[in-house]
Amino acid sequence: MKLSAPAFRRAWQGLILALVLAIAAGSLLPMPSLAVTAGVDKLEHFIGYFTLALLGAGIVTRERLWVVMARCFAFGAAIELLQGLLTSSRTADWADLAANGLGVAAAWAVAAGGRAGWARHVEAWIARRGAS
Description:
single chain; mainly alpha; 5 helices; 0% strand; elongated
């Protein structure tokens, strides 16, 4: 059975946009002077971009998955560039970009393994539960 596009595509897109804005704000606003362990920072980058890419993968087909992943990686690269250009409390960091890329790659691996378009399945599951 071929499932149609997600019925609540706009809601999913809104959730993705909210995460994009949260990542941008968290990356570009002045950083409080907290002692951040380098490994924790990289884990935050990985988790943020993994989540963003996996959310994006939920509303596309497997054939369009590469577009979502390219956009997520480009967003991460743009944020790193903007940190170096626009902020005085942040610096562009190749290691952060690598952590972003690893998060995107991990989400791509999950989604390519049959999980692309997962939002349609979630919506179908919710509809079945509501019909019971």
